[in-house]
Design a protein that fits this description.
Elements lengths: L10 H9 L5 H13 L5 H14 L8 H12 L3 H7 L8 H15 L14 H6 L1 H55 L8
Helix pairs in contact: 3-4, 3-5, 3-8, 4-5, 6-8
Length: 193
Amino acid sequence: MILGRRQRKSLARRARDLMWPRAGVRRSAKYIAYRVVRLPGTPYSIAAGFAAGAAVSFTPLIGLHFLLGALLAVVTGGNLIASAIGTAVGNPWTFPLIWSLIYNIGRALLGMGEGAGVSPDLTLSEIANQPMELLTPMLVGAVPTALAAWTVFFFPVYLGVRRYQAIRQARRHRLAGQRRRRTDLRPIEGEHG
């Protein structure tokens, strides 16, 4: 294999790299930020797409995050690739916090009072057996939380993309001006200086 690894990573190593990137969390977050600001499109479409992906991460519907993010991005006029990147807000580190938050907000909105909280041993079969006790409050709590998440992620991404695109365009104009000046200084063929 050309330019490939000599030894394949083990399954355990790949799982560890997924949970804790080898280059570090900060560097991975920086890379994602660069990928987002360099996407083609208007600042609004990129920010709306990313915010749509982040917003659907605040729902308990894990298997549908990409699809729901794309659907919300289409509705808001957002970039589909940015929505896929935005779903990374929901990850194994943040899901326990998100689920606990939307569960408690949902219980409060439904007037169920203080709950015992989400069990750390929660399984999908328990959710399927007790949808009214777990899934309903989570879905109700997800609506205001997703709206808040959309707003919280939209504005910083919008401002960041707009700033990056302005700097990039100014740099292009500056370089184009330098190229024009260099071609203006060249002598015309047959003319001696």
